[in-house]
Amino acid sequence: MAEGRSFSSVFFGGGTPSALSRRHFARVWKTLRDHFTLEASAEVTLEANPESVRPPLLEAWAEAGVNRLSMGAQSFDPLELERLGRLHGPERPGEALALARTYGFRRLSLDLMFGFPGHDADTWRRTLETAIALAPEHLSAYCFIAEPDTPLGAATLGGRMAPVSPEAQADLYDLLIERAEAAGYRLYETSNVARPGAECRHNLVYWLRRDYLALGPSAHGLWDGVRYANHRDRDAWAAALEREEPCDTREAETPVSRVEEIVMLGLRLGGGLRRGDHAGAFAEVEERFDHAFERAVATGRLERTRDGFRVAPRHRFVADDVIAWLMVVAEREARRTPSLEARAAVA
């Protein structure tokens, strides 16, 4: 499937890969190296829970070529960590980062969460100050979404915990950007800030809509114009793999879905949607979205840049709403003019 292709990044994530033993991780890494070609400068990221970062695993990861660690801190407040169901204490992320640096890791990231029930500006400010003081090269901060299969999410959806208002969540997001930028970080994607040159290259593969393979249960990939999803259940995934059956779902792109994804993903970037990032397809983007872009600029939702458009700073937190609005406007306009799909079908 990937013969003749080389890869610029590998990302071990989507769960807790740091729970793998040293021996099992070595087997996984050997399998990847035996079947895929990695560029010499490839970024290799592994997600780790702070409590699982120990010398034997750090040694194994470093020996294998892992050169970037992303750790889920979420908060530095003990009561919030308990509420979020985290196993580590507030000191452990800092200890884990310091230990990782002794094993040669120079690209470290922390994941934080905000806007969950009981969260407020004071604890968020302290969490940000603590995270920045630890000097990771990269920070990811995600707004809480109530998921029914998590204790806090179920309690929120069930009315047992009061959600934080959208307005308060927006204020917390603004505080994140303010503190991060003051400390020398740059917003390069809606939920991610980094020091110059420390952006997660693998994340940018997603946002720039480049091809990537997804391996393992519940993983999603994009390859040669087809989006696919593997079986979510581990046993179903393994059984299908043994039988050499296709993944769970496959969806070929269309001219319209391609340009909509380019817009949706590109506008999440701090630098915005840039013509130079999509040279082969930007004419189609403009054809479908030109009217919507003009209206978005006129109403203050978007700003023009030297090479395209970006979400206006005051709308960053609701970038998804801006993008949804653009889709509706573009669809209405498309009904009055021949669509990309219609012309492709005629051709």
UniProtKB/TrEMBL annotation:
GO terms for cellular component: cytoplasm. Its main location: cytoplasm. GO terms for biological process: porphyrin-containing compound biosynthetic process. GO terms for molecular function: 4 iron, 4 sulfur cluster binding; coproporphyrinogen oxidase activity; metal ion binding. It is found in: Cytoplasm. Keywords: 4Fe-4S, Chaperone, Cytoplasm, Heme, Iron, Iron-sulfur, Metal-binding, S-adenosyl-L-methionine. InterPro entries: Coproporphyrinogen-III_oxidase (IPR034505), Elp3/MiaA/NifB-like_rSAM (IPR006638), HemW-like (IPR004559), rSAM (IPR007197), rSAM_horseshoe (IPR023404), rSAM_sf (IPR058240). SUPFAM superfamilies: Radical SAM enzymes (SSF102114). Residues 1-186 form the Radical SAM core domain. Belongs to the anaerobic coproporphyrinogen-III oxidase family. HemW subfamily. Probably acts as a heme chaperone, transferring heme to an unknown acceptor. Binds one molecule of heme per monomer, possibly covalently. Binds 1 [4Fe-4S] cluster. The cluster is coordinated with 3 cysteines and an exchangeable S-adenosyl-L-methionine. This is Heme chaperone HemW.
